[in-house]
Structure prediction request, 185 residues.
Amino acid sequence: MDEIEYVNISDLNQFLYCPRRLYYLMFYQTQEINVHLADGRGLHAYQGRRGGWYREVYVKSDRLHLHGRVDLVEQDNGVTVPVERKRGTSYYENDLVQLAAYAMLLEEHLGERITTGYLYLYGTNTRHPVEITDSLRLKVVETVDAIRSMHVSSIPGFCDNPRKCAKCSVFVYCMPYEARILEEA
Prediction:
C-alpha cells in the first residue's frame, strides 16, 4: 500500500486508543457494530437544532494531511469554537487530541486562531472547555506522522491496557489473548 495521504481525524482517536485497533480498521476494514459504537452513532444522529452553530462541518488540509467532520462548530461572540461530542461520562487524552485536530483544521480553513474547544459528554449532559495548547497541537502532528507511516506488513503491538479490549469493535479480529499466545510462541 502506498503512503497514506490524508488521515481522518477520527483515526487519531482510534490510534491513540490502540494502534493495533486502527491497523485492523485501516487495512482490513474490520469493524463490528458493538453496543458502544451503535449507541454513539445513535446519539450523534438524534441531536436537535438550535441557533448559533453548524453541525457536521467537513474540513480538509493538504498541509496537515488531515480531513474530517467536526461535530459542531459554534460562533460565540464572534469566536469560532469546535465541539466534539462523546458518548461516555468522561474523556481522555485521545479525545483532547481529536478536538485539537478539529481546531487546527478550522484555523486553516477560516484563517483565524482557535484557542478553545468543548467536549460534550452525553453520559453527563455536560460540556467541558478544553484549551488548545501547543502540546496538543504537537501531539496531533506526531500522531498524523505515525499513522501515515503505518503499513499493512507491520502490525502494531498490543494495547498497553488490556481493559480497553472489552469495548473494542475489532476485538473479534484482533483476538488479543489468542494472538498474544501465538506471537509469543
Observations:
- Residues 34-46 have pLDDT under 50 and may be disordered.
- Residues 7-184 form a domain with the Lambda Exonuclease; Chain A fold (CATH 3.90.320.10).
- The radius of gyration is 17 Å.
